Amino acid sequence: MAGDWREEAQALWDRAGKQKSSESKVKLLEEAVRMADSHGDVDLGYQLRDDLIDAATFGGYPDKALVAFAWCRGQQKKDPERFEPEGLLWKQKWVVGRIKEFPHISRKQITDALDDIEQCFTKVDAGKRSVLKLRYQTARDMGDDAAEVDRLWAAWLATPRDHLTDCRACELDDELDHHVETGEWEQALRKAKPILEGRVRCAEIPHLTLGTLLYPLFKLGELERAAEMHRRGYSLTSKNRDFLATMGDHLEFLALTGNLARGLALLEKHLEWTLDHGSFNDRFIFLVAATFLLERVKAAGDRDVVSLRLTKAFPEHRADGGYEVKALHAWMLKQAKDIATRFDTRNGTDRYARRLARIQRLAEEVREFPLD
């Protein structure tokens, strides 16, 4: 009988290996993990979770990646000779880079995780640049002291690359976030040139980049170019919930340019992702964009009710598909406010409240630009 469950687990593993990162792949690996755990096979459980971290990270389940990694890291600490820590160093970057996106994880836990990865990387005499980038992004996204954020930004870029540094495409895309954050629109576009020309790319680039550059292009008045990036970027990201935050970028662009019908169609298609997505940060970005869109629909004043086919999982689901704009807007705004409060309470800053208040400024920037 022992052989039977192993064969079944292997079959699940093989099926998962033939799929792209997706909910289905994650579920197959989770089922195989459950089988390994129920039979006490720690080695197989470790190997399966190694693959699960990949699938969950790139399939839009960062919470599941975190749980799988934490289990593996625990095994490494208990028996480092049996489970070599160096084998998961690359994936440790992915997980540690996202733990700040879960408001229930404390500042101390985040600091401990950053210290742990620095210790792990120091043991193999590499990864200093990667750790500095993680510390910079964490400080920036938690709204820490501006001088400290600037110090970490400079230290990251000044540190040499090594075999544990993210690929050039990912690093370049991460640099763009800084320039967008500081309102350096032209600089962001200049740096993005190698990505936009296809000279550097990876699994998630230019997908993320095309969404990131929508607002800078809008601010610079390059609306035709922005529209093309919207079309191209949305087609690359619309089928993978890992890009929920990027969906927020596209939704914001549609609202800013008065393409409200398109925006409502995007909201209809992707709202389901926000209901159970592990990253509360990504949920927040989408919800803020949805709130802004619905404010524009209210301001247009030509309809009080919109017809949307929303998932039955939506708490305010209506079987007839008719949603009062005012009520839908209130729901989105409440969810965004609740998440902002959780993050700002954890972080001890007002960064998320300020990000939510940005909607008021966006309303003054609206510029009609109908898409074909």
* Percent of residues in β-strands: under 5%
Q: What kind of oligomer do you see?
A: single chain
Q: Unreliable stretches, pLDDT < 50, 5 or more residues?
A: none
Q: What is the C-alpha radius of gyration, as a whole number of Å?
A: 22 Å
Number of helices: 18
> What percent of residues adopt helix (DSSP H or I)?
over 70%
Shape: globular
> Which class do the helix and strand fractions yield?
mainly alpha
Q: State the separation between the terminal residues, measured CA to CA.
A: 61 Å
Number of strands: 2
Going across the major beta sheet, what is the strand order?
Answer: 1-2
Q: Describe the largest sheet.
A: 2 strands, antiparallel
What is the average of the pLDDT values? Answer: 96
The helix-strand sequence is: HHHHHHHHHHHHHHHHEEHH
Secondary-structure topology with pairs:
Elements: H1 2-17, H2 23-38, H3 42-59, H4 62-78, H5 89-96, H6 107-123, H7 128-141, H8 146-158, H9 168-181, H10 185-196, H11 207-212, H12 214-219, H13 223-237, H14 244-256, H15 260-276, H16 280-300, E1 305-307, E2 322-324, H17 325-347, H18 351-365
Structural notes for this entry:
With 372 residues, the chain is mainly alpha-helical. Among the domains are: 1-95; 240-372, no CATH class. Helix content is 70%, strand content 2%. The chain has 18 helices and 2 strands. It has helices spanning 2-17, 23-38, 42-59, 62-78, 89-96, 107-123, 128-141, 146-158, 168-181, 185-196, 207-212, 214-219, 223-237, 244-256, 260-276, 280-300, 325-347, 351-365; strands spanning 305-307, 322-324. Strands 1-2 form a two-stranded antiparallel ribbon. Helix 16 (280-300) runs parallel beside helix 18. It is globular, with a radius of gyration of 22 Å.
